[in-house]
Amino acid sequence: MIWEFYQQGQIHEAKSQASRAEGKAERVNFHIRMLEDKIDSLALICQSMWELMSESLSDAEQKLAAKIEEIDLRDGQLDGKIGRVETHCSSCRRPLHKRHRRCMYCGEEMKQENVFQK
Questions:
Q1: What are the DSSP calls for the chain, one per residue?
Q2: What confidence tens digit (pLDDT) does each residue in 2-16 have?
């Protein structure tokens, strides 16, 4: 009898853990879909810019390579990544999280400075 209660408790705990893991997996899948959408949007923007640039410039490939290196070096490292410059809320001056469109502290909505900040 005691063993049966113990087993039922273990089964209940296992079901609870499975349920929590399922919820976490759903949240992760949602974030993955959001990131995939962002990548698709950025790929479309980049392809459009490349085609416009290629049509206007005869040496577009060399200029693009030079610009990529220039932007990459802005943070002092040639590592194939864009360095993040810390930004602050225009209202309360607190640091902003790069993924949020509103200040976490005062709720001020941040302005979109360029097409990449969608």
A1: -HHHHHHHHHHHHHHHHHHHHHHHHHHHHHHHHHHHHHHHHHHHHHHHHHHHHHHH-TTHHHHHHHHHHHHHGGGT--SSSPPPPP-B-TTT-PBPPTT-SB-TTT-PBPP--SGGG-
A2: 888 889 999 999 999
